[in-house]
Amino acid sequence: MNTSLSLGGLLAGTCLLGVLAYSAPSASSTTSHDPKDAELMQLREDFHLASTLGDYGLMLSLWAEDAVFNSPAGTVVGASNIADFFESGPFWGTTVSLTSESKASFVRHGNEAYFEFECIIVDVGGGDPLSTSLSTLPPGNQNPNVEILQHSNTHGMAVHQGGRWVFKTFNGSGGPL
Q1: CA 92 to CA 108: how far, in whole Å?
Q2: How confident is the model over 47-71, as pLDDT tens digits?
Q3: Which is it for strands 74-77 and 105-109: parallel, antiparallel or unpaired?
Q4: Cβ–Cβ contacts within 10 Å for residue 62, how many?
Q5: What is the DSSP string of 132-167?
Q6: Which of 48, 50, 127 is nearest to 84 (CA)?
Q7: Domain 8-22+36-175: CATH architecture, name and number where available
Q8: What confidence tens digit (pLDDT) does each residue in 91-129 have?
Q9: Contact indicator for 122, 145 with CB cutoff of 8 Å
Q10: What is the value of pTM for the model shown?
């Protein structure tokens, strides 16, 4: 494991934390998911859920043993090293990532699949990430305790192993909004 990684630098390069996925219709969106993509979409959502809940076991289960996690800040190799890295982050269990379905794609080739998705990282002001409202009344007003921290794009390869999809390579890039 590259121990010179800083989480601050890595945040700019990866979709770290979250649980909420929303469908944001767009007039220009042409993304349509094949029902066979459901397992790949679940992999993405389990990644967000593990980060949001601070669930180390779930996070560890999402990676191939020899997985590679890349960002502009550096590289982490191996499932347990990647899970350790996320667990050590300051936002572990406290932030939410919104993922627009119109910005996600999966291309399967047998037991491998290329994936891309976009995330908006949101700090929920120290509240419970699963129950904090992102807006206040009246509808459309942002909750003053919620702060958008970052935007990131990820892409890589997943592999189907042992009857399920896991991340093999995970590449991130992005930064503040």
Answers
A1: 30
A2: 888 888 889 999 999 999 999 999 7
A3: unpaired
A4: 23
A5: --SEETTTTEEPTT-EEEEEEEEEEEEEEETTEEEE
A6: 50
A7: Roll (3.10)
A8: 677 777 766 666 778 899 999 999 988 777 777 776 666
A9: no
A10: 0.72
